[in-house]
Amino acid sequence: MLVDFFLHLKARQLPVSTKELLALLAALEARLVGHSVDDFHLLARTILVKDEALYDRYDRAFGEFFKGIEALPGLDALIPEDWLRLAAQRHLSEEDRAKLEKLGYEKLFEEFKKRLAEQKERHAGGSKWIGTGGTSPYGHGGYHPEGIRIGGDSAGNRTAVKVWEKREYRNLDDGVELGVRNIKVALRRLRRFARQGAETELDLDGTIAGTARNAGWLDLKLRPERHNAIKILLLLDIGGSMDDHIRACEELFSAARAEFKHLEHFYFHNCVYESVWRDNRRRHDERRSTWDLIHTYGPDYKLVFVGDAYMSPYEIARPGGSVEHWNEEPGSLWLERMTATWPRAVWLNPMPEAHWQYSPSIHMLKQLLSDRMFPLTLDGLERAMTSLSR
Amino acid sequence: MKFEGTDTYVTTRDLTLAVNAAVTLERPLLIKGEPGTGKTLLAEEVARALGMPLFQWHIKSTTKAQQGLYEYDAVSRLRDSQLGDPRVEDIAHYIVHGVLWQAFECETPAVVLIDEIDKADIEFPNDLLRELDRMEFHCYELHRTVKARHRPLIIITSNNEKELPDAFLRRCFFHYIRFPDKETMTRIVNVHFPGLKRELLKEALAVFFDLREVPGLKKKPSTSELIDWLKLLLAEDIPPEALRAKEAKDAIPPLHGALLKNEQDVHLFERLAFMARRKS
Ligand SMILES: Nc1ncnc2c1ncn2[C@@H]1O[C@H](COP(=O)(O)OP(=O)(O)O)[C@@H](O)[C@H]1O
Ligand SMILES: [Mg+2]
Fold first, then answer.
1. Beta carbon of B224 within 6 Å of any ligand 1 atom
2. Which atom of ligand 1 is nearest to the CA of B42?
3. pLDDT at res. B108
4. What does the mean pLDDT of chain A come to?
5. Using the beta-carbon criterion (under 8 Å), do A212 and B77 form an inter-chain contact?
């Protein structure tokens, strides 16, 4: 059975290895847990799952595999009748309760299990455990069985709804868009990119050690530089429509910070004009001229814009088009100057790619960047990095 | 020998199971969780509860795996040789033992804490794989292998700043400490302030959990901030009424500086409170 469970987890895309299966076997042999399924659920998680982002996936897979566990000898005694009586007492109206009594608890339990199974299928993406309401003999307007406990401590305080069915870790699962979680994966890609620039540097400790061993004769040691030599100039759109994406961008940004030795960042709003700023709290006092950027960070830097490129076309095309100030020259001119300095510049856009076509400003900026605009998803990052290093 | 939490450390079932699995099966235990969820404290408490000595290794961005084994202090030796010190003859004088060496040579089973492993270079965990597997390493200078007398219990913490390599993860047991719910938090606070008035605790926790929900905070207050704040509330003798939810909604809780450590967060929060006041 354990092997089946293991294969089931694998089939559900949990990266479990045989080494870990053996560890779980050893843990069971060592009698770390008794007959409690709850404990087994936790123990197996400790041993098999190494990332809290996968906890929810594990809970779901566990629930599927141990579905009907109530029917297993030893466990079923803990659930049916008492559970239902209690549930009925707490959650049903007088009238509904009477209906239930008529049905008989035996029948009810069968019915209940069916209902539960249905709900499980239906709730796949949405909110869980919401009853159909009204017509169901199981409560008006949908109730939350997770609130129900089997009374008393005698049953080891077993929760009626299993821990794994509570889906407590759902918000830790990797989303589709680049969220806090899969930033990590994104970083792995960034890292690969970063490594390309690795060079050798003087190994000072090695040199000292070597020299000392040599009784004072200088013994130079070199080693590949651990960090990378790639230099990044990051320009981030801030405020306005970007507010929705700010978290994703900040995460990416702070993560990128740790990866790149040379990372310079500046902010702009909507489109780049004659100046940018580094500290958003002092955006009005401490500006840096864009010409200055162009002269300071030469073509050995790679330029990355991050922004939703969502604005009025005037903000790109016209002098004075900016929403915040009077710009003498149009944003498009500034972008042309920048792409002239950094011809491989890329633009990362947190908006879903499917929406781009509806926004003229996105279209314009994409053209200004000769199509090097990519969505802020794993795949998009990958493409952007490839494009940057070409 | 089972870990069940201590009088000063509150655990949940999943955490004790994970610790005991690591103890019994002699596997490193990797602990993740928000800052302030008691990761570092766990190692201390496990060591205390099981009566084992604790060896702590706090990782920085410049920490190298080798430093946990030993370092050859070549510079001292060079200096001694210049000064004609006879000690220079014996290289063993210049081998500085690292945390793992000390734990390996310990007479009794020990606990080793590798704290904040994600601070180090991404190669760091890989560089330790062999040592953690076999609990031995070779000292080339002394031509000898240092082997653990007893496999120590290794507790590793991470704040999730960096991804850890798969090969490393496969060797560890893993536990993610979820941010305590109200009930667990009440138990934690009780451990720190055994005589705390129920009323004050209730109001304080309500304020605390509300504050954690404020959108856009850079750093949500954690357990340690809650405890600092309670300490201040007690010292200043703030009555529970001052925290009461109704008034607190549109007011700023007293001494909130202890909960929000980040200047931007304080600003954000004050602004929100100000807006709420104006609306009502
Ligand atoms: N489970 C707990 N029981 C008792 N105190 C706790 C617990 N969790 C956190 N604390 C308190 O919070 C403080 C911070 O814990 P610490 O171990 O430093 O957190 P982390 O290493 O996860 O950042 C501890 O010193 C302790 O006062
Ligand atoms: Mg810590």
1. yes
2. 17
3. 95
4. 69
5. yes
Cβ(B44) – ligand 1 distance below 6 Å:
no
Does the CB of B163 have a partner CB in chain A at under 8 Å? yes
C-alpha A173: how far from chain center: 6
The counts of H helices and E strands in chain A are: 16, 9
Interface of A with B in 196-215 (CB under 8 A): 208-209, 211-213, 215
The Cα angle at residue A231 between residues A229 and A233, in degrees rounded to 5: 170
- How far is it, in rounded angstroms, from Cα B217 to Cα B210? 12
For chain B, what percentages of helix, strand and coil (3-state, to nearest 5) are there? 50, 15, 35
Min Cα distance B170 → chain A (Å) is 7
As residues whose CB is below 5 A from the ion ligand 2, the structure lists B 40
Chain A contact set for B25 (CB, 8 A): 23, 26-27, 30
- ∠ CA A89-A93-A97, nearest 5°, is 65
Sequence letter at residue A79: I
Cβ contacts below 8 Å, chain A against chain B, sum to 79
Rg of chain A's alpha carbons, rounded to an integer? Answer: 30
Residues forming CATH 3.40.50 domain(s) in chain A: 229-389
Q: How far is the CA of B188 from the centre of ligand 1 (A)?
A: 9
A346-349 and B111-115 as β-strands: parallel, antiparallel, unpaired? unpaired
Architecture of the structural domain at A229-389: 3-Layer(aba) Sandwich (3.40)
Q: Taking Cα atoms as reference points, which of A336, A275, A272 lies closest to residue A306?
A: A272
Q: Looking at chain A from residue 224 to 243, which residues have their Cβ under 8 Å from any Cβ of chain B?
A: 226
Chain B window 34-93: which residues touch A at a Cβ cutoff of 8 Å? 72, 74-75, 77-78, 81
> Is the pTM here over 0.90, yes or no?
no
**Best-predicted range by mean pLDDT among A139-148, A240-249, B210-219, B250-259?**
B210-219
User: For position A177, what pLDDT does the model report?
Assistant: 43
Residues 100-129 of B with CB under 8 A from A: 121-123
List b or e across A187-221, with b for residues whose CB sees 16 or more CB atoms inside 10 angstroms: bebbbebbeebeeeeebeeebbbbbbbeeeeeeee
B226 lines ligand 1 (CB under 6 A): no
Ligand 1 atom nearest B37 alpha carbon: 22
If one residue of B7, B29, B37, B176 were mutated to test the ligand 1 pocket, choosing by the most ligand atoms within 8 A of its CB, it would be B37
| Residues in chain A closer than 8 A to B166 (CB atoms) | 15
Q: What is the pLDDT along chain B (280 residues), one digit of tens a residue?
A: 789 989 999 999 999 999 999 999 999 999 999 889 999 999 999 999 999 999 999 999 889 999 999 999 888 888 888 888 888 888 999 999 999 999 999 999 999 999 999 999 888 999 999 999 999 999 999 999 999 999 999 999 998 877 888 899 999 999 999 999 999 999 999 999 998 888 899 989 988 998 888 877 778 899 999 999 999 999 988 888 888 755 545 567 788 888 888 787 888 777 777 666 666 5
Q: What is the distance in angstroms between the CA of the first residue and the CA of the last residue of chain A?
A: 51
Give per-residue pLDDT as tens, A283-338.
Answer: 677 788 999 999 989 888 889 998 888 888 888 988 888 877 888 899 999 999 99
Q: Give the model's confidence band at A216: pLDDT under 50 very low, under 70 low, under 90 confident, else very high.
A: low
